Amino acid sequence: MTRSRNNIVITSIGILFLFGGFLGVILTGSSGISPRQVFGAIFGTGDVSSFVSTIVLQTRLPMALGAVASGIALSIAGLMMQTLFHNPLAGPSVLGISSGGSFGVALVMMTALNSAGVLSSDFLPFISILAAIAGSLATIALLYLFSTFLKSGVSLIIVGLMLSYLFSSGISLLNYFAKADEIRSFVMWGLGSFSGLRLNTSLILLVTVLLASLPALWYIKPLNALLINERYAESVGYSVRKLRGSILLMSGLMVALPTAFCGPIGFIGLVVPHICRLLYNTSNHSVLLPASILFGAAVTLLCTFVSVIPSGSFGIIPINVITPCIGVPMILYLLLKRNKLLYF
């Protein structure tokens, strides 16, 4: 089978997984809603009760849309970071952006704001989103500032790790003084979940991610140049320092968006780019970027579907419990089959 035909087959399978995962999420639940009722609620056809419409339109559909948006954002961020730093272990959590967002939420949930009763109001989701965005953007700003002084990508990774440790220390300190119910609320947020999304917020997240993804198409050639080495990228006309800063800002934004709306979602940004490299057997970003978008959404939907299967008796399992269980076997299988991890 030629490479082009192989790529078509793999892409077709990815599309099937994408649609299958989406259907699995919107059709699965503990409410006993039939597929006909689900599609009636979505498309406004048939005689559908308000209860069914609420379940489908305000719980199941937002979960599916949130999974798609988060998978796309985190996979793009992971691919760009791994190429920028020439590090197969680089991912959305390495630079401390997720930790910065978590620290912002911890400040809101476990400080005087909670004692003042702000978090018991209907504004809790909105306040948490703002806090996560503020923490993530502050971290991105610090990293961008350091990137203007540091010449080495490895040094920037070290800075990100130090920021991550600093934020983790701050969260631990807040945990030490917080009440038990405050700690539980923050821990549940930190496990990651799409179940808290509503239709309007999931659509905002999806549209924002799709718009933010468009500039990534311009980075295909620069990323291919960086993949060879920084000296080659300079020789073909790219300023590595400016390129590093712009890629850092974009990938940071891609991490900040799902973190703010859904909590820190782990493993997706790390594992999906490797899955795409191994499946397509290439390092060309003109293939890897759209493949990461497709399989990022598909893998995240698959994990979300698995998380909602036992919802009748145990509730929805946090997404960060499922992502390693799905991702690790996929990577191990592909590694054993190909016996290598490509192009680093």
- Uncertain ranges: none
Number of helices: 15
Kindly name the structural category.
mainly alpha
The ordered string of helix (H) and strand (E) elements is HHHHHHHHHHHHHHH
Shape designation = globular
- What is the oligomer described by this structure? single chain
Structure description:
This protein has 344 residues and is mainly alpha-helical. It has helices spanning 3-27, 35-43, 50-85, 97-109, 112-115, 124-147, 153-177, 180-190, 199-213, 220-228, 230-235, 240-262, 268-280, 285-308, 319-338. The longest helix is centred in the first third of the chain and has 36 residues, at 50-85. The two termini are 26 Å apart.
Main features:
344 residues, mainly alpha, 15 helices, 75% helix, 0% strand, globular
Q: Which helices and strands occur, and which strands form pairs?
A:
Blueprint: H1 3-27, H2 35-43, H3 50-85, H4 97-109, H5 112-115, H6 124-147, H7 153-177, H8 180-190, H9 199-213, H10 220-228, H11 230-235, H12 240-262, H13 268-280, H14 285-308, H15 319-338
In short:
This protein is mostly helical. The protein has helices spanning 3-27, 35-43, 50-85, 97-109, 112-115, 124-147, 153-177, 180-190, 199-213, 220-228, 230-235, 240-262, 268-280, 285-308, 319-338.
